[in-house]
Amino acid sequence: MKRPRSRLTGLHDSLAAVLGEDSLELLTSIAQLRRHWPDIVGAMMAARTEPVSIERLKDQGLCLLIGVDHPIMAQQIRFLRNDIRQACFRHARVTNLQQIRTRIQPGAGIRSQQRKIRKKAVRFAAKRAIAKELASIKDSRLKRAMFEARIAQMAFAEDSKHEENS
Questions:
Q1: 81 and 154, same domain (yes or no)
Q2: Cα 151 to Cα 2: distance, rounded to the nearest angstrom
Q3: Model confidence over 55-87: pLDDT tens digits?
Q4: What angle, rounded to 10 degrees, do the helices at 124-133 and 140-165 form?
Q5: I need a surface site. Which of 49, 63, 100, 123 has the fewest CB within 10 A?
Q6: Has residue 3 been placed in a domain?
């Protein structure tokens, strides 16, 4: 006896049957927002905020809940809500976003995949010049920290210059 051939169905249809079409649409929208969040709010705000959920309001509009790690970020979100609404449509095609709410959530933020900075060797002559500039500073810990910061700055500038030329 042969087994009947199975029919392939799309993943969207299967998930819609389990979750419901409306819930699947909201789930897809929040996934798109999370994927494009650094483009929507910028890298600095994305590191301290994140879209948590989207809910359907009674009047068929949508409410976006954003988790923030500090009340200052919540205030910034309120100031930028119209820009965020437009960016959500532009980057993630989320329409009918009527409300944007915030919730304090320690550790909120989407960390972007930053490129690793390769340490470039800084010439000895440059190190000597920096040491001469910092010679007047009496506090040895401060002098050391400033020296290391300047070396890192020079290495980063060299790395950036190298990438632009590539």
A1: no
A2: 73
A3: 988 887 899 999 999 999 999 999 999 999 999
A4: 140
A5: 123
A6: no
Q: Is residue 83 located within the same domain as residue 41?
A: yes
CA separation for the pair 52, 102 (Å, rounded): 9
How many other CB atoms are there within 10 angstroms of residue 28's CB atom? 16
Which residue carries 């810990």 as its tokens? Answer: 141
Verify that 99 and 146 share a domain, yes or no: no
Domain of residue 39, residue span: 11-104
Stated length of the chain: 166
Distances (CA, A) of 57 to 10, 37, 79, 139: 29, 22, 22, 60
CA distance 65 to 61: 13
Indicate yes or no: pTM above 0.90. no
Q: Say if residue 85 is in the same domain as residue 154.
A: no
Number of domains in the chain: 2
